[in-house]
Design a protein that fits this description.
Layout: E1 2-4, E2 14-18, H1 26-33, H2 63-66, E3 71-78, H3 81-86, H4 96-106, E4 110-115, H5 118-122, H6 125-136, E5 139-145, E6 149-150, E7 156-157, H7 158-166, E8 171-175, E9 179-180, E10 183-184, H8 187-195, H9 199-206, E11 210-217, H10 222-225, E12 231-234, E13 245-252, E14 258-266, E15 277-282, E16 293-304, H11 311-330
Helix pairs in contact: 8-9
Length: 338
């Protein structure tokens, strides 16, 4: 998948799904499905957004084979517009690298991650369509949710987008709001569920387990002295964290294998922890994980973080957590079977 933050390096013509798509949840997937091809797509490199090498002309090896097809493209924004206008940091359900992974898995060919600046914020709806969709992307189709707003002061909505796009012969697809279990599927609803420790509800709205991706860093190694060695995970600074406590989790290693585990998120009050940390103990596995990337697929919330009178009580509770997690995970599919 080609990823760029510059319209001048974007591939065209494009079928475009417009939105923030934080979480890439089931509602987002309904919008994205309207611009996807049914045939497998060839992989593309990523661009400067991820700080990786890119080709000078990424489309040169694809255009001769494409015929009249357009690139399946998501156009999103960074920082999140709410963060831009409020000036307050907004942790993300899917930071950039994770969003790229999720979009690639859906079959997208391109992510145009536009810097959300004052200049972009001042564009009228008409200028947005003319400049971004027409001039740079040569859009043939655009897909949005019915609650989509764009342009200066959010003055444009999905129906206005359709009206303007018709002038340029751009087909417009508008997806209705999606609901599940009586709740509207939205990033806000998922955030609320995660903040309340309702991980299984959040997972249903996402359509997959909520993930924490990071790299193992050196910790205090207290778990090893208690008989439960843990891997301390360094997460992206902008990752949204769920309710503090203990979770059952499938742990995906960098070799693609999945292992059952127990994760603790919090400040570890029993041992006078002074900052939040993410620690995971892998059941029935032993080895060196230092400096390796891990992906934690959170499955069930076991209990909130609590302080124990001493290490013996803490050890007994960890043992119980492991037994409970094993019981939960035995009844749930691992991520590669989801």
């Amino acid at each position: 998948m080609w990823v760029t933050s510059s319209l001048t390096t974007a591939l065209s013509p494009a079928n475009v799904a417009l939105g923030n798509f934080d979480g890439v949840h089931l509602g987002h997937q309904a919008v994205i499905a309207k611009i996807l091809h049914q045939t497998p797509q060839r992989d593309l490199s990523v661009s400067q957004v991820l700080g990786e090498r890119r080709e000078s002309d990424p489309g040169s090896r694809l255009k001769p084979e494409r015929g009249d097809r357009s690139y399946a493209t998501v156009v999103s924004f960074t920082p999140h517009p709410q963060e831009f206008f409020s000036g307050q940091r907004r942790p993300l359900l899917t930071p950039v690298k994770e969003k790229v992974e999720q979009l690639r898995s859906l079959g997208l060919e391109q992510l145009v991650l536009l810097p959300f600046t004052e200049t972009l914020a001042r564009l009228t709806p008409e200028a947005f369509v003319e400049e971004i969709l027409c001039r740079y992307l040569n859009a043939k189709r655009v897909s949005v949710g019915e609650n989509f707003h764009f342009g200066r002061d959010r003055s444009g909505n999905s129906q206005r987008l359709r009206q303007i796009s018709q002038q340029y012969n751009i087909e417009t697809c508008i997806s209705g709001l999606q609901a599940l279990d009586g709740d509207r599927i939205s990033s806000s609803t998922i955030r609320q569920a995660l903040a309340a420790g309702q991980i299984q509800h959040a997972n249903r709205l996402l359509g997959r387990p909520y993930r924490l991706n990071g790299t193992v860093e050196l910790g205090q190694q207290l778990g090893r002295t208690l008989g439960f060695p843990t891997a301390n995970l360094k997460l992206p600074d902008d990752k949204f964290l769920p309710h503090w406590g203990v979770y059952s989790t499938w742990v995906q290693l960098d070799d693609g294998t999945h292992h059952p585990g127990v994760m603790n998120l919090g400040c570890r009050p029993t041992v006078a922890g002074d900052r939040p940390s993410v620690e995971v103990h892998l059941l029935d596995w032993d080895g060196d994980l230092y400096d390796r990337p891990l992906s934690l697929h959170l499955m069930t919330f076991l209990r909130p973080e609590q302080q124990f009178p001493g290490l013996d009580a803490l050890t007994a509770q960890i043992r119980q957590d492991c037994q409970t997690a094993r019981s939960h995970l035995d009844s749930l599919p691992s991520p590669h079977r989801l």
